[in-house]
Design a protein that fits this description.
It contains 5 helices and 8 strands; from the N terminus they run αααββββαββαββ. With 204 residues, it is of the alpha+beta class. Strands 2-1-5-6-8-7-4-3 form an 8-stranded mixed β-sheet.
Length: 204
C-alpha cells in the first residue's frame, strides 16, 4: 500500500511539473512584443497588447487572449470554443489531457461582449485561479484591483469591485448587460460541489 501511495504521489507531482513546463512554453510564445511605434498610439486608441497574441492564435486558433493580474500567479492564455464550451476544462493549450485545464471564456460570450465570464480551476498547488480565493480578504482586494485581458484588439483593463461567493455564475450573464461592461472570473470555492467564487471587475 505504501509503495502504491508513493507511486501515485510521484505520478501526480510529475504531472504537475509537466503542466508548469507546458505553460512556460506557451508563455514563451507570447513574449512581449511592444515596440516604440505601438507605445506612441493616440490616447483615444485601445493600448496595443503587450504579449504576442497573434503568435498564440497561430499556434492554436482556439486562443483569444491572455489574462493576467499583477501580484498573483494568474498569467495564462484564455481559450474560447462556443460549440464545445468546456473543451479546455481538462485539456492543455495543445488539446492534450490536463488536470489543470486552461482558463476559458463562457461559450455565450465573445471578446466584444458586454459581459466576459472566464472560468478557471482552483488548483490546490496554487496554479490557475487558485489565487482568486485571496480576494475574500478586503486588504488583498484593495491591493490587487487591476486585471488585464489582452486580445488581438489590444489591452482591456478592468478594476475589481467585489468578490462574491455564490452557487452559480449564470445570474451574472443577464445582469451585466444592465450594469455596463464587466469581467467575471469564476472558480470553484468551498466544500460544496456547486460553490463558486466570482471576482467582479468593471472596465476601467
Amino acid at each position: 500500500a505504501a509503495v502504491l501511495a508513493g507511486a501515485n504521489i510521484y505520478s501526480e507531482l510529475k504531472e504537475r511539473q509537466k503542466e508548469k513546463e507546458d505553460f512556460a512554453a506557451v508563455s514563451q510564445i507570447a513574449e512581449p512584443t511592444v515596440t516604440a511605434a505601438q507605445t506612441e498610439s493616440e490616447p483615444t486608441e485601445q493600448p496595443a497588447a503587450e504579449r504576442n497574441i497573434q503568435a498564440l492564435i497561430a499556434e492554436n486558433a482556439d486562443c483569444i487572449g491572455w489574462l493576467s493580474i499583477d501580484g498573483t500567479n494568474i498569467s495564462y492564455p484564455v481559450m474560447h470554443t462556443p460549440s464545445e464550451p468546456q473543451k479546455y476544462l481538462r485539456r492543455n493549450f495543445y488539446g492534450k489531457y490536463s488536470q489543470s485545464g486552461v482558463p476559458f471564456l463562457d461559450g455565450r460570450c465573445d471578446i466584444r461582449s458586454t459581459n466576459l465570464i472566464i472560468y478557471g480551476h482552483n488548483m490546490r498547488n496554487g496554479t490557475m485561479f487558485s489565487d482568486l480565493k485571496r480576494y475574500v480578504d478586503r486588504d488583498f482586494l484593495n491591493a490587487h484591483r487591476t486585471v488585464k485581458f489582452e486580445t488581438a484588439d489590444g489591452v482591456q483593463t478592468f478594476t475589481v469591485t467585489e468578490a462574491l461567493k455564490t452557487n452559480t455564475s449564470d445570474a451574472w450573464y443577464d445582469r451585466i448587460a444592465e450594469d455596463g461592461r464587466q469581467l467575471i472570473l469564476s472558480t470553484c470555492y468551498g466544500s460544496g460541489k456547486d460553490g463558486r467564487l466570482l471576482i467582479i471587475a468593471a472596465e476601467s
